[in-house]
């Protein structure tokens, strides 16, 4: 708990510094693909995800930008269950089941703009803190008890930006966002019930981390700061 509190205070302090010196702000949103790494031997498929953020940034004359953003992101994965018949002879058709997390995400980072003839490109590196406000399991709902509410990770970004007018720019942003912490952690020895086969299996350690690939479309408004001499 102490580490989580220090982490939150660090984020709030850095974010406050960005807000105080902001030269730009905007909104971004878009689709993505969610992955999950399950070390318990379970294989998971891709999940269609989405996100929306509001952001502030502070740009220097050299093209270096410090940014902060706050938004809503979905995370998770899916599993395809093949057709089968349970112990009572009931037939179940094939279906795809989802594991979805609704996360509030605060991110801070540094971005470098590179000027070209017609537009600017950029790359960026950020750190994220996430709070899970809601989780949905269409399979193994008992994992709700093992969801970790606070998580953190990094964001690796690249993209391009175009000028619309003197005070407005728009762009695209590709983000690869692996988590460092575990969204789910189940210690070894916890037995679990399979609702499909209606059987109980011996428990093994289960550690789940999120990975997201997100594509954002954004609009950025610039504010010109003039200093009195």
UniProtKB/TrEMBL annotation:
Signal peptide interval: 1-20
Top-level taxon in the UniProt lineage: Bacteria
Signal keyword on record: yes
Species, as recorded: Candidatus Defluviibacterium haderslevense
Keyword Signal: yes
Keywords assigned: Signal
Name listed for the protein in its UniProt record: Outer membrane protein beta-barrel domain-containing protein
């Amino acid at each position: 708990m102490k580490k989580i509190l220090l982490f939150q205070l660090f984020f709030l302090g850095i974010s406050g510094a960005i807000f105080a010196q902001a030269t730009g702000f905007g909104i971004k949103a878009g689709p993505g693909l969610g992955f999950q790494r399950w070390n318990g031997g379970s294989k998971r498929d891709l999940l269609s995800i989405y996100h929306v953020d509001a952001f502030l940034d502070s740009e220097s004359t050299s093209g270096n930008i410090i940014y902060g953003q706050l938004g809503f992101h979905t995370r998770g994965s899916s599993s395809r269950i093949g057709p089968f018949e349970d112990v009572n002879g009931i037939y179940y058709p094939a279906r795809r089941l989802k594991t979805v997390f609704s996360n509030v995400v605060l991110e801070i980072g540094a971005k470098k703009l590179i000027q070209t003839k017609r537009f600017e490109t950029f790359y960026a590196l950020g750190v994220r803190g996430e709070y899970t406000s809601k989780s949905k399991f269409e399979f193994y709902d008992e994992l709700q008890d093992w969801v970790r509410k606070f998580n953190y990770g990094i964001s690796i970004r690249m993209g391009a930006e175009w000028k619309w007018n003197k005070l407005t720019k728009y762009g695209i942003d590709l983000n690869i966002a692996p988590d460092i912490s575990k969204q789910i952690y189940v210690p070894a020895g916890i037995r679990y019930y399979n609702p499909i086969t209606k059987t109980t299996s011996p428990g093994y350690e289960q550690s789940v981390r999120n990975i997201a690939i997100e594509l954002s479309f954004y609009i950025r408004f610039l504010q010109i700061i003039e200093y009195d001499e």
